[in-house]
């Protein structure tokens, strides 16, 4: 039983079923940092948790950065990763804001 899970794009052999765990640690950290940054921008702007459509916008923005960095990962994997990190990012934002309020007032 043969399964084709590679394709050639722009002269590069790409794995079509790649997941986040297949990336290098530094690539994952970079993507996570971009997602966190865009998430914080959205939360600071709206002062609430982003909706699903806003999460899609965040993912779109970060996916453009991923493509510019020439990191190959399917879009749905980045979206899934974002959904898994959303609560962590929200809690970090709450903690950061609570510290800012206690130091600022």
Textual characterization of the structure:
- The chain is mostly helical.
- It has helices spanning 25-46, 52-68, 75-104; strands spanning 6-9, 12-15.
- The chain has a domain at 23-89.
Give the topology, please.
Layout: E1 6-9, E2 12-15, H1 25-46, H2 52-68, H3 75-104
Antiparallel strand pairs: 1-2
Shape: elongated
Helix content: 55-70%
| Poorly predicted residue ranges | none
Task: Please report the distance between the alpha carbons of the first and last residues.
Answer: 66 Å
Structural class call reads: mainly alpha
SSE order, as H and E? EEHHH
Q: What would the average pLDDT be, to the nearest integer?
A: 87
Radius of gyration: 17 Å
Count the strands?
A: 2
Strand order of the largest sheet: 1-2
Total of DSSP H or I helical runs spanning 4+ residues: 3
Largest sheet: 2 strands, antiparallel
Summarize the structure.
By secondary structure, the protein is mainly alpha-helical. It has a domain of about 70 residues.
Keywords:
single chain; 105 residues; mainly alpha; two-stranded antiparallel ribbon; 2 strands; 66% helix
